[in-house]
Design goal:
Strand order of the largest sheet: 1-2
Order of helices and strands: EEEHEHHHHH
Largest sheet: 2 strands, antiparallel
Radius of gyration: 16 Å
Length: 143
């Protein structure tokens, strides 16, 4: 291993960064700021657990503003959030979207009337990680 960008390959072919950032008690009260700083420093793997209470800070990434998702949203006449939800469904991963209004709750279910083309699935797969700590071991990215 020569840099933080180097990865170990697990038995199932999934790659995991050779070093991660521990979020337990990471700058209590300023989790979002410290996570942003860690990302800027090059970290792409974050250790977390519900006990740490850092999920919200880790999840605050502007992935929905990514130009690729915006383009796909326009192509499929859906929102970027709906593209993300449909992407996970097509990967057989159960998404758990958050919504605080009835309108958003309904929109979250309006993802079963279209399918993302395989080429577009590959394009989403090629996006740089946006805050997750790695692949789900049972559901690797489309190959």
């Amino acid at each position: 291993m020569n840099s933080m960008k180097d990865c170990y390959e697990l038995e199932n072919g999934v790659k995991i960064p050779c070093m991660g950032y521990g979020t337990y008690k990471a700058a209590e009260g300023n989790n979002e700021g410290i996570i942003k700083t860690a990302i800027e420093a090059g970290y792409r793997y974050f250790d977390t657990a519900s006990f740490y209470d850092t999920e919200e800070a880790l999840g605050r990434k502007r992935v929905l503003e990514h130009p690729l998702l915006g383009g796909l949203a326009e192509k499929y006449n859906k929102s970027a959030a709906q593209i993300c939800l449909r992407y996970e469904i097509q990967r057989q991963v159960i998404p758990l979207p958050k919504a605080s209004t009835k309108e958003r709750m309904v929109q979250n279910y309006q993802v079963f009337d279209f399918e993302i083309e395989k080429e577009d699935m590959y394009r989403i797969d090629s996006m740089q990680p946006a805050g997750w700590s790695g692949e789900h071991p049972d559901f690797p990215r489309v190959k």
